[in-house]
Each structure stands twice: as C-alpha cells, then as structure tokens.
Amino acid sequence: MFKCNLWVYGLIIITLSACKEKPNFSSLPGITGNSGALITQNFDSAQIKRGEVVYLDNCVGCHGPNGAGTPDWRKPNADGKYPPPPLDGTAHAWHHPTDVLKKTILRGTPQEIGSMPAWEGKLTDQQIDDVIVWIKSLWPAEIYDLWYKNFESKQ
Hints:
Elements lengths: L1 H16 L27 H14 L1 H4 L34 H10 L17 H14 L2 H10 L5
Helix pairs in contact: 2-5
C-alpha cells in the first residue's frame, strides 16, 4: 500500500513538474474542463478568519505568506525531498478532494517525498477544517470551479 501511495505521489509530482506557469487544467488526468457558469465560493467568513489564524500560526513558515509556496517547489532539494508547494491554486492542492487534503494535513507527506509533518494530535479537526477552507478561499474562481465540479459535486 505504501509503495502504491509513493508511486502515486511521484506520478503527481512528475506531472506537475511538466507544467508551465499556468497548466492546462483540462489535460490533467481526472480533471474535466469548465463548462457553464462558475461555481461561487460561498465560505463562512468567520471560518476563513479562523483558518487564516491556524495557517499563520502553523503553516506560513513553510508554505509562505498567502500560501505562495517556495521558489522552485517542483524541484527536489539536495536531500531529494520536494519543498512546500503553493496552496493558492497555482500548484496541486486543488487536484485533491477535501478528505485527501485533510488526510495529508493529519498524516503529513511520506518522508521520501517531502518534509510536511503530521498535525494529528497537534491541531483539532475544527482547526484543520478551518485551514482547508482558508486555503480554498485563496483559489481563483476558475480553479475552485474545476475543483468543485470534479470532487465536491460528485459526493
């Protein structure tokens, strides 16, 4: 199971490494193109504020201000691990349903791929849910629309 997950993460990283500054979203596996009106981001402003506080207290040191990530996040460091990616809609966070985002925060990244620690037992479920909403609030309307239509609307 672990090797399978490692392979999937590697495939995602390789796919993203080939992306230019603005990837062609409809060409990614499992992602369908945009059709019709955009889905509106309708988040609770209090939850966004709480999520921002959680982010600033725990995540900004690695993922940067406003989820901008680190330079050259697509290239592994000298230790072979990938640096923290942007969370603002310019990287791959939006390629995952909410439950996968939550699991990644809870368990961290596989040690062979990245250095994100596990936050289980350090953050409450509510804090994790809040920070995920804050992250989603950063995504441009087009990205959120694609994410919603590919993941949320199918649940």
